[in-house]
Structure formats: C-alpha cells, structure tokens
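seq:
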Amino acid sequence: SVTLENYSTMEINAPLLVGSGTTFDNKGSGSVTISGTGDFQATTGSTLNAGTFILEDNATLQVNGTLFNNSGGTIQGTGIIISLSNANLGGTIIPGTSPGTLEVTNDVTFSGTIDLEIEGRGDNFGGTPGTDFDQIASTNSAALTLNNTTINLIFGAGTFYNGDQYTFFDFGSVATVGTINVNNNKGYVMSYLGNGVFLIVSGALPVEMTHFEAKTIDKSVLLTWGTASELDNDGFEIQRMDGYGNWIKIGFQKGNGTTLTANEYNYLDENPAQGTNYYRLKQFDFDGQFEYSPIVSATIEGEKTAFKVYPNPAKNTVNIALDNPAIGTIAITIFNQNGQQAGQFLFEKENEIFERSLDISSLPSGAYSLEIKMDRTVLRQRLVIP
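struct:
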C-alpha cells in the first residue's frame, strides 16, 4: 500500500504505475499533483482520496480498479479521469482552472459537492465550455448519476443575462437520485431541469408577477399568469422548449403598458408534445428590452405506444418497431448532437404493428436522437452508431 499523510505532497510529471493489488491511500492532509505528461496509473485494487488530487495540463488519473473520492477529498483541475469501473466521487469536485473542463471516460456517480465557476455567457449565446464556464464532460457518452449532490455555482466578475444556458454536464445520459441542491452567490433564480444537463439563469420580470402555472386540459395545456403591477409592458411571448433544449415561440399576449391594477392572462397550447412540456414567458418592454419568467411544465399522457429501437448501438441498419401507432403518416427523423437533421424517413401506417429497417450506413459514428412523429404523438430515443 501507498499512504500519504501528515501534509505529505507528491508531484508527478512522468508516468507513475501503482502495481497490482496495491491500495493508494491519500489521507486528508495529503496532496498529489499530476502535471504535464504525468500519468497516474493504478492497475488494480482501490485508490482512496481524502486529501487533494490536482490535475494540470490535461494530465491523466487512471484507476483500473475503483476510484473513491471520500468525504473531505478534493479532485480538481483540467485533466482526464479514467476509471474502468464506476467511479464513486463524493467529497468535492472542482473542474478546470477558472474556468476549465474535467473529463471522465466511464460511468461516474457524484455524491458530494461540485463547485462550478461561471465567468461569461452561456453556450446558447456563444459561450465556450472550459473558457466561459466550468464543465464536466464524458469522452465516450458515459452515464452520469447525481446522487444527493450539492452544486455550488460561483459567478465571477463577468456580465450575466437572463436566458443564459450553461451545459455543465456533457454525458450520454444523466440520472438523478435523492435531492439535488443548487446554490449560487448572485441570488439568481436557477431553473434546474430534471435531466440534470443544464441550468438556465432567470431573474425578476420588470412586471410584478403573482403566479405562473401550466395545467393539462385533455390534450392541451392551459397557461395562466397574473401581474400585480406593470411598467412599460408591451406583452408576453409564450415559449415552449422542444426536445433539443431550444425555446420555440408559440404565441404572444399583449400587455397592459403601465398599470398598478392587477391583471390576469392565459394562453391555450393546443399542440403540445406527448410527455413533459416546458414553458416560459419572454416579457417585452416597449423599448425592446426583455426578461424571462421562471419555467413551468405540464405532462400530456398520450395513447400508450410501444417503441423499440434495435440493435442499439447499431451500424449500417437499425430496426424500428411500434405497437399501436397512430393513423396516418409516420415521420422518423434522426438528429445529430448539434440538433441538425441527419436523416428523415416517411411511412404510412398499414396495420396495428409497424416495423421498418432504416439505412444509416452513411451516418458517421456518434450519438444521435431518433424522433418519431405521428399525429400529435412525439417519441424520442437515443441512438448510438459505433
């Protein structure tokens, strides 16, 4: 076994191999810095960290056994964490160097605290992960689990705007367990969406809103909101999020200018997608300035349709099977990771069971979103091409 304690330090700037059966135990007072061409490799056994691991200049922390970042431990920097089994990362994770990107190669569970720095605009307004804000990313579409995690958002001296969207976690899939706490030192309202992938900054509207709700009525969604007062309020643009994180305008309600009288508004969305729909308001002043409301959601329960994509991952050909599809045209669209259409197939329903094979031989390797639209039903599933 290798143990660091009593404020011991270790600097690694060349490959270091911890042999078979060895346990590397970095105690609470220990510090390990891996930099440059440094490569920390533990072939088997366990690597325990209750001190500090610092990765610099894209160095590598590789553990072929299990990596445990225990309570009190810190992993920080801009390198790559390689763990051939699921990494259990409690303690504190600090990606980047004001800001930066920390990469992982395999499935990972975060169960401690994650500190994320934000210095510039969100990636939906041209911001860059690793430069304008911290990001923890997977190099091969690994799975991320946030298990009773606390996320501390640390805003720097830059200028931030309502509507900025930050993709802090870039993984193949994200699951949440227990309670996810999001703290920030600016007092911004942070709307945390259930998939855990990104957060959206929003603040107070220039009108004093009393409520904003979304309610399912049959196959439609009724949005209602109210104001206690309004100042130069031109009106409200109603927006709905599509399946790729983009906000789409679906309507507009005229405001009441400047008034101290309470007002009520409503809008009926007659074409929501099956599943959970997210909504927000974009409130415009007469001079063109705008603010965003908090996000609300409503769920549309559609006719149950069995949806199978196989094999997955798939190469050259993928099969689609639907049970009880809707009457009429069935549109199958494949989108790449940038939300761009990579292929589309149109079919007509012939019977109660729908099965087709799609030619995907022209698509490069990567992760895709496969979308099926029929009548008012929209189904989506991830597709991987190795």
